[in-house]
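Quick illustration, no need to memorize.
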Amino acid sequence: MATSQTGQRRLQWLAGVTAAAAYLLIVIGGAVRISGAGLSCGTDWPLCNGRLLPGADLLAWVEVLHRLGALIVIVLTAGLTYTAWQNRARDRWYSRLGLLALSLVLVQAGLGALTVRTRLSAPVVALHLGVSLVYLATTLIFATRALTEQRRHPAPAKPVLGWLGWVTSGMLFILLVSGTYTAVRGGGFACPDWPICGQSWLPEGWSAVDIQLIHRWLALATLLLLVLTTWRAWRREVSPLVTGLTVAALALFIAQVFVGAATVWFQLNPAVRAAHLAVSAFLWALLMLALTADQLGLALAPVRREFRVRRAAQVLRDYWVLMKPGVMVLLLLTTFCAMLVAERGWPAWHTLLWTLLGGVLSSGGAAAINHFWDRDADALMTRTRTRPLPQGRLRPEHAAIFGVTLSVLAVYLLTAFVNPVAALLALAGNLFYVFVYTIWLKRTTPQNIVIGGAAGAVPPLVGWAAITHTISLPALLMFLVVFAWTPPHFWALALYKRTDYAVAGIPMMPAVRGEEETRRQIFLYTVLLVLASLAFYPTGALGLFYLIAALVLGARFIWLTAQLLRERDDRIARKVFFYSMQYLGLLFLAMVIDVLIRSHWG
């Protein structure tokens, strides 16, 4: 029995990792093609310009690393196939899917070599992507079967999506392959207008313009089919998982159309094309997961009428609660102020709005995933037990899909309408908050807030990069301030909510190290915070007005934490917690005022 369970866990782990690697390989392959690295090794394969290592050519190294990634995926697939064969007795599809995945990845590798040797021939590149998408679908189906082996419905009902789901997925497949063919043929910018091309609505031949028009008509057909598929899942809601996945796919597809149009209108950064492909592959993955869950009968749960009525009345408010608007406001404030300081005035409206919208989506997405992961602990704490998931007002599947969708949209829109540096920083903050803080640190160490505070310190970096396209000393000092601010802020909350955290089994400082040590740590971190806030002046980043404001605000903070150190009163802990929010907001506001004073009267 133990050996069987070990084999099952190994199979699940391999299946999940292989599916994730398959997706990343598609994204990296697209980035290689778009950056021009695909031909940096000439027509050599597997060597690069006749050598094993490419020397000092950066683009050639990108291509070599892509090939190394493909080799890793082949090894993972071979391991998955072997493990699937060992576990074939539990599910006859394991060995079949494993052999199919291995065959596809080998064909994909061969097409990769052919792509190089034909110097990125459009039909070969399109075929390469098509096989990659089928391989990704195979690994996703495998991973879904392996990870849900114990959760499948004993007698799956008739699939909800049916033939419509398969037709929609087929049309999306054709659209994605045609998009790559269009790009390689040079049709991406053949039409300077959108949605029409000059006076043309319909293709008349096989020129670059005609290919672009065909791609647009395919996009329209796919959108209509996806709307019908989503509506069907929504109306027949017997599987929250299928409904959530199709709604997410529709939302991302609409964003795809919007960014595609903006790319034509405004000739957006080439990095947008890589993001466009990444979201396209993610869309394909969502639809494959929805179809697989539908076929397996996962999460079948007829919806009661009273649940529908309650949900119709509260859905917007509950989803807003998932995004943790209170935390979001503070994060957006630091982003906004960093932008004003970097610009030394008011930034361009479009940059400001898209950056803040990206911040809303990124922060809200990470918060929704946090709600999903912590729903068991939230149900035990008085502060959080009225949230939508513990109360059963929203389904956990929907919260998780909502969070992932917002996170993807955030990175996508920041890449398209701000710049790739800001997008990568937002992605790093989002992933750090979800995987490092929420999933790993929060329930394992009392230092969870100290290390996890790095996620909350990223928004000023995003705001700065949105204006300057880079990171410099003032932005790093802002990061340091927010990083040092996080422990006294959250530990003050943990002090007067210590019973909650103890009941939930979360090792916050008061529950693990005791109240006395927590008060001492709050005081020490506050002193470090104030010292960090003063560093702007000697480095020349900010001037005298800011220095005075930082001294006054910091003195008040230190005085309150010193009082907390002397007096064992929860009312003082509450006062420290609420003042900490005022402190951070006023400190960043002082940065803006100082810059404006120096810009206009300095």
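The CA atoms of residues 203 and 210 lie 4 Å apart.
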